[in-house]
Amino acid sequence: MEGSPRLENFVIGLIVLVISISLHEFGHAISADKLGDPGPRRAGRITLYPGAHLDPFGFLMICFTMWAGFGLGWGRPVMVDSRYFGNPRKGMVITSLCGPLMNLALALVFGLLLRVLIMTGQVTAIPLLSRFALQFLVINLSLMFFNLIPIHPLDGGKILSGLMPLSLSEKFDSMMWQWGPIILLVSCFSGAGFLSSVISPAVISAVEFILGKS
User: pTM for the complete prediction?
Assistant: First the structure.
């Protein structure tokens, strides 16, 4: 890939982020489908095609922030109706967890690939593959840890809610659906680096563990 380093980083990061967000949403869709919810299939979400999972405004945000040097954006949420599940609360935990698990799977696949390239001394011989593998590793770990933050509307909030006793879960949902999105927006755009300070240490530790450096 020829051109300026900034343009190359932008293209690689954009490709990786689009694929990773699409597979994250596909994880939610396929798990809900397997648990009996017909909605994701009717909506055309049981597919790996990124166009089915990307939100137009979220994609524009990805482009702008990726050009600025960091990736921030979102996909089109999968609408899940827990009434179709045999156990609605357990089903919501499973479907919410499957998005981050898809990111973990991608991180492991490309992290182990990068580890093999490092061990065999092929990193410099196949630089483009190495750069893609590193971006898949870091971006997917970042997406996983970000989405596991236990506030709504993130997956972590839904998972925590489903694991709580019902009475406590109802209070948590009432509070978090009101304040969670505001907390998230302020954290993302305040420039205080709060999210980075929370997520970065976990990502660095996970990268070192997968690459065998810890």
Answer: 0.90
